[in-house]
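Q: I have 93 residues here and want to know how they pack in 3D. Can you give me a structure?
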Amino acid sequence: MGTAARVDSLVVDWPSGRRTVLSGLRPDSIITLNEKDATTTQPTPAISEKPLFTTTSGLNFIHQENEFNDFNRDPAYLLHALDRRTAGGGGET
């Protein structure tokens, strides 16, 4: 806020979709707001007719996973290794 004498505006968007807008508030003041007192609703965003993504042709790529093992490169990683067979790392299958 710096040295401002008034808060320009305070906007509260409630979970119900309603909105409370206050203006001209003093800094360092305590206010109490209730969702039931909100008088306006949030504006509905415009839906664009233009798609974000389009289908492309000519892309000839298939991902192939390589079998790289960090523990072979640096055995110190084994101190922090989790067993890859289970999510918890316990080794029980």
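Q: Anything worth noting?
A: The two ends are 58 Å apart (CA to CA). The chain has one helix and three strands.
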